[in-house]
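Subject: for your reference before the review

Hello V.,

The reviewers asked for a structural picture of the protein, and I figured it would be easier to keep everything in one thread rather than splitting it across files. Below is the amino acid sequence we used in the manuscript, unchanged from the supplementary table.
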Amino acid sequence: MKDQNQSGLSALLRADKPADDPFSRQSRKDVTPAKPRNRLRPNLEVVADTTKASPKSEARADAKAGPRATPAKHDTGSDFKNPFAELNRNDPALNKLSSGARMMMKHDSDEVAFKGMRGRKITHADALLRIAEWQTGKPPTALQLRELIAGMVSARVEEQYFNDVFDRINKGWKTVSKKVLKEHREVAQHYLWGRERKENNPDAAKAGFCVVNQAAFLDQVNAGREGLADAHNDKPALFRYGTELAQVNHVLETGETLLDIASRNAFRRHLSEAVPWAVSQSDDSLRGVPAPLEVTDHLLSEPNLPLPFLERVTVSPAFDSAGNLLDQPGYQPSAYTFYAPPEGFMMAGVSPEPSPDDMAEAARILIVEWLGDFPFDGYTRREIEVAMGVAEAMPGEIVKAPPPSMLNFLGWVLQTPCRALIGRSPMPALLVTKPVAGNGATKLIESAQILLFGNTSTRPTFPKDEDERRKAFFSALRASTAIMLFDNVKGTVDSPVLAALLTSTTFTDRVLGRSQERSVPNNASVAITGNNPRFTEELVRRLSLCRLDAGVPNPEKRAPEEFKHADLEGWMAGNRGRLMWALCTLVQNWIVKGQSNGSASVQSFVPWSNVIGGVLEAAGWIGFQSNRDQLKVYASSDEDDPIQTLIQAWYDDTLLPKPVLGDPAYAGALAAFCDAHALTLDRVKKRLLDGERVFDPTSLGRFLSGEANRVFEVADPDSGLINVALVSGEKDKHGKPWRLDWRVR
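And here is what came back from the structure prediction:
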């Protein structure tokens, strides 16, 4: 029986075949092996295939190729011509197909061959949706398989995604082997590539190809430029990113979407896939080749290739500059944004006109569920909820203004969905400061990272060297890092590089291995945490203050039951969709109400404060950036600060018979005190008195007024470092009295 089957198959392969038929074993011996095929489309001629197969061989082919679909009756009329049903027997590309693929082609019905490959392109995500729609337990038909795989071939889906789809199909239907799926892919590639060749016309055969050894160099450059524009028009994967070229990469295993600067080899790969490059051989045939290096380098150096411009990659919904919510995955040209939500992320639809109930629910989710346990400005949870309007005040209960630190933090979070609305404007860094460790500064920022990006990412310790800072910032921005967090910053920060980062919309540095400088967009939200870190004057005005103070000696020892969510990170991860809905509802509410500017206009950051302040005020929360005068108190550097010397001396000395904190002193007495201690106050004028130059009380009074309510750190011989504040009283006939008051450390 085995010999009979082999004999029947041999007869089938020999029957009615010309000597040069590539399906014939004899012909395969005589055909010269073809050179390695270009990954791009070869051109194939089309002639009739009149071979017949025996019933037994058809049955064997059916078993190998998977379930077959019934031929489409509506496609078999007298006028119907299937362009895929005929093969070129002289085409050497057939010899490169597997025997299973060649046999599958012989037994394709018109429906499988034609209808299965005339549909739209299918991406990896589309393929997964189709697989999910197939019947459980019933293997997919040959038509379904061919439609799916041919659509992915047409969309030029990457190899890793083919492997993922094949794994899923094989896991769901064991009868469909990966070998059969790969044969379907071979057939689809052969059919689709062969369709593009003009029949028996050598000149037309070269149409669409850039023949390197026949085209002038500038013609090759033009072909590459036009090919890149066409290839990255519909669903782009290569972008202009500042002065760089960048590619968006999806990590299948982790679900991450990363932005990589395209290297020379990576760009050459894109160019090779965008344009069919070939060389003409002596027999006038074409051999596919990768993109020429000279053309690659020429195009790589062009400043404005016809590629889409990209400013940021986001994994959460955002708004474009016109106020449209971008919640569909992919490149969003209206915001120069690539939106790539992680697998499984779901967000309810945002109402075009949020109702009062929508706003109340958004506020409840953000304040009660998320932020209520953080001690913003020393507020308790109850004080926060009443101040923010999510809880009603009891009779006689004092209602405080919304804590500005909470509003500043919410504004920092809103920067991500509102980035296009803010426009090309810099944004200040959020300083989360606290008197002692354990107040939750790092937890607060990391919870925001989970909300916006699905994970946490802490940058290394703030670099101490300016060159290291420049490299760290540039490296983060080249990867389109959305949040740059510098945790537990200590001491005094003096960094012109950080100052430039916070006031620039692009960041420039010299790339290692290149002589020229490169620039990338700067859209990162910067956050700094620490226990009373200090900053130079040029940095202080580039900060947004968020103060956390639980008001207890050891805040890290608070019991878990004191918090709304013992595992805040886990709760944030499981409620990303609800939280993002709440944020987007706040923004949509502001858009519907006319996009009024916020009342707090911050110098150097006016567009930012207009948008963020407007969103918060439209929600009924007043007080955004109202604590900017506290920046000097909690963030200004005390090093080499003359008034620091005055405050320390005032605390130490016997200015009064028995110095008591809170006792007043007038400018005249303080001027005499400064003279007695030979203090240096460059900004205070002096006058002649009895032949000596002494401090002028009026000038000293103006100087002290500029430091009013500032908190200073002084050394106490018994208590160590303590905080005191310089406070002024009501002016009387002697002038304005000044005193030092205790402040909670």
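For the response letter, the relevant points are probably these. Residues 638-743 form one domain. The radius of gyration is 36 Å.

Happy to draft the paragraph if you're swamped.

O.
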